[in-house]
Design a protein that fits this description.
Order of helices and strands: HHEEEEEE
Strand content: 35-45%
CATH topology: Elongation Factor Tu (Ef-tu), domain 3
Strand order of the largest sheet: 1-2-5-4-3-6
Shape: globular
Largest sheet: 6 strands, antiparallel
Helix content: 25-40%
CATH architecture: Beta Barrel
Structural class: alpha+beta
């Protein structure tokens, strides 16, 4: 029985010990994808990039989400893609705030 616990502990340590290596991919995929992480006078930056299929000129919906509901608060247009995980958006309409979610569903203009 102790051997099984030791093997399980070793496997768990190997998996969770490698978390920093996997954190960007897992964190992006499960927790951050689409989240607005910065807003300023020049526009908005969200955790949505090439890996998500974002491309320049794409128009996307933005939602404010709570545990009980989500509400459409505006639209953004991709104007610059930084890398696989981040892009810069121009606000087309609405009232957005940091922490809102850019929807991956494309909106037809």
């Amino acid at each position: 029985m102790r051997n099984h616990l030791g093997v399980g502990a070793a496997i768990g340590f190997m998996f969770f010990g490698s978390t920093p290596l996997l954190a960007q991919g897992i964190g992006h995929s499960l927790f951050m994808r689409g989240k607005i992480v910065r807003m300023d006078a020049g526009g908005t930056v969200a955790c949505l990039g090439k890996a998500d299929g974002a491309h320049i000129g794409q128009i996307l919906e933005v939602y404010h989400a709570t545990p009980r509901h989500r509400r459409l608060v505006g639209h953004v247009e991709v104007d610059q893609i930084f890398d696989d995980h981040y892009a810069h958006f121009r606000v087309r309409d609405g009232t957005l705030q940091k922490g809102d979610w850019v929807s991956l569903k494309r909106v037809r203009a």
